[in-house]
Amino acid sequence: MSETVESGGLYGTADDADEIGERFASGDVPVAVYGLGKMGLPIASVFADVSGNVTGADIDPDVVESVNAGESHVEGEPGLPELVSETVESGAFEAVTDPRAAAADATLHVIIVPTLLTDENNPDLAVVRAVVDDIAAGLDRGDLVVVESTVPPGTCRDVVEPRLAEESGLEADEFGLAFCPERTSSGRALQDIRGAYPKIVGGIDRESGRVAAAIYDRVTDNDVITVSDATTAEATKVFGGVYRDVNIGLANEFANYADGLDIDVREAIDASNTNPHSNILRPGPGVGGHCIPVYPYFLLNRFDVHSPIIQAARAVNDGMPTHVVGKLEGALEQHGTALRDATVLVLGVTYRAGVEETRNSPAVAILQQLSNAGAETVAVDPMLDDVDGVAELVSQDAAADRDLDAVVLVTAHEAFDDYDWDAHDDLVVVDTRAALDDVQFDHDRRVVGRADGD
Q1: Parallel, antiparallel, or unpaired for β 199-203 and 224-226?
Q2: pLDDT confidence of residue 2
Q3: How confident is the model at residue 92 (pLDDT cuts 50, 70, 90)?
Q4: Whole-Å CA distances, 287 to 240, 315, 352
Q5: What backbone torsions phi and psi does residue 186 show, to the nearest 5 degrees?
Q6: Residue 390: what pLDDT?
Q7: Quick count: other Cβ atoms within 10 Å of Cβ 429?
Q8: pLDDT at residue 279, as a whole number
Q9: What does the mean pLDDT of the chain come to?
Q10: What is the percentage of the chain residues whose pLDDT exceeds 90?
Q11: How large is the average pLDDT for residues 30-36?
Q12: Degrees (nearest 5) of the Cα angle 73, 77, 80?
């Protein structure tokens, strides 16, 4: 490392961990958070609450305007509207549309923008690279850059550090870089950020890890786990997501045996999980969202490693919408109705209950397959204003007035507890999550993962 950085910096100072944490918590360390989306806004708000000195940067002027008005554009996050309002009103948090202006004033830079996939399912780091270039334009000696965005393992080492050095003109040992993955779920972001789980920290070098750990020790009420390096920390996040995809794929494969075994697969799974060595997750209509179905490709399409298990899980989970439509088609035929002549209601289009997100949602694939088969489709989702043309979106009351042949429950929003099933006669109901077990009606219900007729 170069000689000790003068007071005011973070990386390479003579300050110990307590001194770094105190400077951060007292507002002496200007923070810039890049990306104010569904995870970025909660992270920026918590940092503002802890440090009192945060600038959030987002290229969407509507997002910036809403934040500076003290409003949260992110729905379904308990406590977030209040926290945004409080931190903006106190002057602890402001937003700008120019990331380079934020970078020029910041000493701590936090990246929380999405890593998407190309049409060929290759990781697309274009947004991350753009933010890195913005940071580099204002990077000073002694600054610390933290990546919270989920990225393919090796990204900090192979992409972020050399790009920061090249674009800033600094040597790599004159600034810090750490990967500290966000470990949050939609609907509980503030709880998770503040310490529901230990915080993982991995520095590109030992000093980066030390400084990042000192910062996050003030952010989280839980433990801070410092792993060997940034690549290990990156792998920690990706491996966890891939594990869930594989586990769900296994549960879905078990569910596909249900008819032949004449069992309820969830009963078998629950009983199996009473053994501490068994932790099988729940089957369903597939896997959606911006995380679990995406992370496998951070490995599959970036490294030359034979990965039959990960590939098989992706195939199983991506095939579940077809399984659901097939189950519906078979049931309709038993009722004397062809799928192409049916009117089908899909309850729930978002990928998870209570979450305003349709990316990779199994419901979208189900609606598309139904439409391709010639069925008339209608959808209800209390979280959405439209469904991008894949179906007619109506209210629950309007759906109850429709002449339907079938209902497919994909996402079990709480509002569906009040659905008026008695408004329909002789429905086929496909329950993809066994969410209607406690509902009493006379319709023909088929459950994914349960032998028909049980």
Answers
A1: parallel
A2: 45
A3: very high
A4: 15, 11, 9
A5: -60, 135
A6: 85
A7: 23
A8: 97
A9: 95
A10: 92
A11: 98
A12: 70
User: What is residue 48's predicted lDDT score, i.e. its pLDDT?
Assistant: 98
Tell me the CATH number for domain 232-454: 3.40.50.720
pTM: 0.92
Instruction: Encode pLDDT of 190-211 as tens digits.
Output: 999 999 999 999 999 999 999 9
- Whether 51 contacts 25, CB under 8 Å: yes
The token duo for 231 is 């690549």
pLDDT of residue 260: 87
Contact in structure between 191 and 158 (CB atoms under 8 Å) = no
For the residues 394-420, what does the mean pLDDT come to? Answer: 96
Q: Write the single-letter amino acid at 169.
A: G
What mean pLDDT comes out for the span 222-238?
98
Q: What residues have CB less than 8 Å from 368, skipping those under 6 apart?
A: 390
- Among 38, 199, 237, 327, which one carries the catalytic annotation? 237
Token representation of residue 358: 């349709």
Active-site residue among 38, 156, 199, 291?
291
Given a contact cutoff of 8 angstroms between Cβ atoms, the answer to whether 258 and 276 are in contact is: no
237 flagged as catalytic: yes
Examine domains 17-228 and 232-454 and report if their fold is the same. Answer: yes
CATH superfamily of 17-228: NAD(P)-binding Rossmann-like Domain (3.40.50.720)
Nearest to residue 48, comparing CAs of 186, 248, 193?
A: 193
pLDDT band, very low/low/confident/very high, at 6 (cuts 50, 70, 90): low
Domain range summary for the chain, segments of one domain joined by +? 17-228, 232-454
Could you tell me the sign of the dihedral formed by the alpha carbons of 22, 28, 29, 31, in that order? positive
Tokens of 278: 């068994």
3-state DSSP assignment of residue 346: strand
Provide the token pair at 180: 């500290």
Residue labelled with tokens 């501490």: 276
What are the φ and ψ backbone dihedral angles of 210, each rounded to 5 degrees? Answer: -65, -45
Rounded to whole angstroms, how far apart are CA atoms 23 and 20? 5
Q: Is the pLDDT of residue 5 over 60?
A: no
291 included as an active-site residue? yes
Task: Please report, to the nearest 10 degrees, the dihedral formed by the alpha carbons of residues 202, 205, 211, 214 taken in order.
Answer: 40
Q: State the pLDDT at residue 453.
A: 60
- The helix (H) or strand (E) run that includes residue 31 is strand 31-34
Residue type, 57: A
Kindly state the tokens that stand for 443: 């319709």
Tokens 């979450």 -> residue: 355
